[in-house]
């Protein structure tokens, strides 16, 4: 889309100098000073934001790092807690039928998600302080207005600031891939913080393996949700890149869908398993595991249908463009074919 021009500029059509009338460029000393100050302010703001992000991240990861230094076995529990999320992110990467994404961008997105998780941690803390004490509706407001939107936004930001701008982001489905990796990074730092905090709370009275095994299992169940939610938002970010006239609504739609799923999980995971275990003769722990698995499968199927449809359409149009009658169209239950 070409930039809009003033009526004078359109009429003159380059025949006269319109500097400071309807066009502008740095010419005078004041012009150049203004341009220099603007560049300095913009760069300075970026540096300040980056330094603040790094500082907050350092504070958040200090406890996990010290815990690993003090007891290296804790690091193994950190790693185990992200295995399911890692496996799911790898599967989403595998379903990308177009081109493989460069490892450097995947790693960068993972790291950026860890850095940007600090913003979510700060906002969540403030939101919890004001909303959680409100009777009945407080927790719901907190989950639907703060936790869901903020966490999904920072994960999407981790994709938007780098991978999205890369030439390697050349297909809609790439958004789901990078979104999944951002979710993995967010889950990694969140799991490390939760496990460290839990081990600090239980103290030395409980054996390390006994204490860490339980919280690691819980966090391992939580991780895939982050991957699924942010992959959904990432898919719509991919649609936005290739539909610039509707980019804003598409990004908002992706964040809205992902945030609602995310907040609904948070709002129900502490209630539904208890109700189930009170009605049926199963333990609360088993009810919790069953609920989380069923919830992730349901939301994951929503994402799967979108990726499966993209894959089928991709194969179909490539077969048409190559003059190939093609193979029978697989159902969405067929295993991926690269």
Set out the fold topology.
Elements: H1 7-12, H2 29-70, H3 73-81, H4 83-94, H5 103-131, H6 138-160, H7 172-202, H8 208-241, H9 247-268, H10 272-279, H11 284-321
Account of the protein in words:
75% of the residues lie in helices and 0% in strands. The protein is mainly alpha-helical and 338 residues long. Helix 8 (208-241) packs parallel to helix 11. The chain is globular and about 85 Å long. The protein starts with 6 loop residues before the first helix and ends in a 17-residue tail after the last helix.
**Derived structural class:** mainly alpha
In one word, what is the shape?
globular
Q: How large is the share of residues in beta strands?
A: under 5%
Largest β sheet strand count, sense and barrel closure: none
Classify the helix fraction into a percent range: over 70%
Distance between the termini: 36 Å
H/E topology pattern: HHHHHHHHHHH
Uncertain spans: 325-333
Extended strand count: 0
Integer tally of domains: 1
């Amino acid at each position: 889309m070409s930039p809009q021009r003033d009526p004078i500029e359109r009429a003159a059509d380059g025949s006269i100098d319109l500097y400071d009338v309807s066009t502008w460029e740095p010419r005078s000393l004041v012009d150049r000073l203004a341009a220099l100050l603007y560049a300095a302010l913009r760069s300075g703001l970026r540096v300040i934001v980056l330094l603040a992000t790094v500082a907050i991240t350092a504070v958040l990861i200090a406890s996990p790092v010290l815990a690993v230094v003090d007891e290296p076995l804790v690091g193994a529990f950190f790693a185990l807690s992200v295995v399911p999320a890692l496996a799911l992110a790898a599967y989403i990467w595998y379903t990308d039928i177009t081109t493989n994404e460069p490892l450097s961008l995947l790693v960068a997105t993972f790291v950026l998600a860890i850095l940007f998780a600090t913003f979510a941690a700060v906002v969540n803390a403030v939101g919890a302080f004001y909303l959680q004490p409100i009777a009945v509706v407080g927790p719901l407001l907190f989950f639907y207005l703060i936790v869901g939107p903020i966490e999904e936004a920072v994960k999407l930001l981790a994709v938007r600031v780098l991978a999205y701008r890369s030439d390697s982001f050349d297909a809609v489905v790439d958004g789901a891939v990078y979104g999944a990796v951002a979710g993995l990074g967010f889950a990694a730092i969140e799991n490390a913080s939760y496990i460290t905090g839990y081990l600090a709370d239980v103290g030395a009275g409980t054996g390390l393996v006994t204490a860490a095994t339980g919280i690691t299992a819980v966090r391992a169940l939580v991780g895939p949700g982050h991957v699924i939610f942010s992959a959904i938002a990432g898919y719509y970010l991919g649609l936005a890149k290739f539909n610039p006239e509707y980019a804003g609504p598409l990004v908002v739609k992706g964040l809205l869908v992902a945030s609602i799923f995310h907040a609904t999980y948070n709002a129900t995971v502490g209630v539904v398993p208890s109700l189930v275990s009170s009605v049926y003769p199963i333990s609360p722990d088993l009810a919790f595991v069953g609920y989380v698995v069923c919830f992730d499968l349901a939301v994951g199927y929503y994402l799967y249908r979108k990726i499966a449809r993209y894959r089928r359409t991709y194969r179909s149009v490539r077969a048409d463009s190559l003059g190939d009658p093609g193979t029978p169209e697989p159902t969405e239950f067929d295993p991926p074919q690269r």
